[in-house]
Amino acid sequence: MSDDAVGGERSEPKTDPGASRHGNFMNYYQFHPAEERVRQLPHGVWRLAHPARKYAGLDVGCNAGDLTYVLYDFLEKAMSQDQPEVSLLGVDLDPMLIERARERNSRPDRVAFECLDFLSEDCGETLTRYLDRFGKKRFDVVFCFSITMWIHLNHGDDGLEEFLRRACALAEVIVIEPQPWKCYRKASRRLRRANSEDFPLLKGLKYTGDPARHIDDIVTRLCGFCKIAVTESNDWGRELLIYERKQQNCPTDR
Ligand SMILES: C[S@@+](CC[C@H](N)C(=O)[O-])C[C@H]1O[C@@H](n2cnc3c(N)ncnc32)[C@H](O)[C@@H]1O
Q: Where are the domains of the chain?
């Protein structure tokens, strides 16, 4: 199932997905159950470097938090040998989604949510303040699940580059789930069908056709990260690209 089959910002029947400008669907997880999303994640790539066993993650574009909570459980299990103290921060630009995420928070000591536009000026300051609590300069992992298309459509090629540069600057490991190009066309079509203005930057995009390839090039060439894993596509055709900060040379292509 693609994003095309997701209910929209307004409540509409499941067969008639609504239009969304930023991907801030209110019922996203009815269509993309969060538990299924972590099945593709490998277990061996999460490293605990902090002497006090503190492991901090960032979930960019966390929507209503369902996936953030599942990622928290996943990380605790995947690193259970090290018994880390996992903390996760979810950020999203939609205040209603952040309110929903906070309402259901059963681990407020470990999971937090902030309403932030990741490309805004004040975002960096909030994230630095969060990291200071753990004595860290960067997050151990930054998750970017199904957000790159919305950034790309709203901020263009330069915006996508800026988004990935910022995310990489904050990350030791970054996990990206890019949307395929057909989803761009569907998102545009849905806006037009809803008599809303199309994404003004769509026609001028140069990074077209295979967004994952462009994202891979930006993350490895411009941001200097090494690819450490690519998962199989999930049942709605999305693979996860996983990279880590370059220590010396990247190991040969995986
Ligand atoms: C399609 S949803 C994906 C949600 C979640 N990451 C997942 O895959 O389950 C995309 C989310 O990104 C958020 N988003 C879009 N642009 C954003 C930005 N500039 N800063 C923060 N969040 C953003 C939207 O509000 C939306 O909740």
A: 53-137, 144-246
For 66-106, how does the pLDDT look when each residue is reduced to its tens digit (9 = 90+)?
A: 999 999 999 999 999 888 999 999 999 999 999 999 999 99
Name residues whose C-beta falls within 8 Å of residue 77's C-beta, 6 or more positions apart in sequence: none
* 196-236 confidence digits (pLDDT tens): 999 999 999 999 999 999 999 999 999 999 999 999 888 78
Please say whether the structural domain 53-137 has been given the CATH code 3.50.30.10: no
CA of 29 from ligand 1 middle (Å) equals 12
Q: Which residues pair with 211 in a beta bridge?
A: none
- 179 close to ligand 1 (CB < 6 Angstrom): no
C-alpha atoms less than 13 angstroms from C-alpha of 155 in its C-beta half-sphere: 18
* Residue 24 Cβ contacting ligand 1 at under 6 Å: yes
Give the Cα separation of 122 and 66 in Å (integer). Answer: 25
Q: Which ligand 1 atom minimizes the distance to the CA of 59?
A: 6
